[in-house]
Structure formats: structure tokens, C-alpha cells
Design goal:
Pfam families: CxxCxxCC. By secondary structure, the chain is mostly helical. Helix content is 20%, strand content 0%. It has one domain (18-88). The structure holds iron/sulfur cluster (2 copies). One iron/sulfur cluster (SF4) binds at residues 10-11, 14-17, 64, 66, 71, 78.
Length: 89
């Protein structure tokens, strides 16, 4: 990565970590959290989190700070890698 793209260093419009992993904590609109592979309802059309900076955003979402090893070079890579990681844990 050559430059930070936003505060999280994440690729804007990716959203892979809001789809591939399961999230067990409640999310507004998804009180039971979300299963793996399901798109978070808070992920907007541009694949950005509607809760960014909102205290209702699950703390676990912070876990997905940009990590080149996981995020890969593009979204499809991230989707596959996160799914694999999820399957291992
Ligand atoms: S998978 Fe990585 S690049 Fe994609 S949204 Fe999540 S943190 Fe950002
Ligand atoms: S709350 Fe936001 S950061 Fe967390 S999974 Fe949903 S869209 Fe992604």
C-alpha cells in the first residue's frame, strides 16, 4: 500500500469485511448480528459503513482495520481470504 486512503487505511468501496465474516454482536437492523457471507444492512450502496463514527457501530468492526495480508489487492481477494480465515476459526 502506498498511501492511507482513509483513517482506517481501508480501500473505500470494498466492504468485504462487512460481508464475509460473521458478527455475533448486535448491529442496528440485525439484532442477532450477522452470519458469514451475508451483507451487513449498514453497508450502503457504495460499500461504505453507514455507522462510521456512530457509537452504535459494533466494537468488533474495528477489528477489520486494513491489513494488507488479509485485504489483498482487491475486493474479491479480500472476500476469499476472510472467508478462509472464518472457516479456520
Ligand atoms: S476487507 Fe480490508 S480493504 Fe476491504 S473494507 Fe475490509 S478492511 Fe477495508
Ligand atoms: S456495522 Fe458497518 S463496519 Fe460493521 S459490518 Fe456493518 S457495515 Fe461493516
Amino acid at each position: 500500500m502506498t498511501e492511507r486512503q482513509d483513517e482506517a487505511g481501508c480501500r473505500p468501496g470494498c466492504g468485504a469485511c462487512c460481508i464475509a465474516p460473521s458478527i455475533s454482536s448486535p448491529i442496528p437492523g440485525m439484532p442477532q448480528g450477522k452470519p458469514a457471507g451475508v451483507r451487513c444492512v449498514q453497508l450502503d450502496e457504495a460499500n461504505l459503513c453507514r455507522l462510521f463514527g456512530d457509537p452504535r457501530r459494533p466494537a468488533v468492526c474495528e477489528r477489520f482495520a486494513f491489513d494488507a495480508a488479509l485485504c489483498g489487492e482487491h475486493r474479491d481477494q479480500a472476500l476469499i481470504r476472510i472467508r478462509e480465515l472464518e472457516a479456520m476459526t
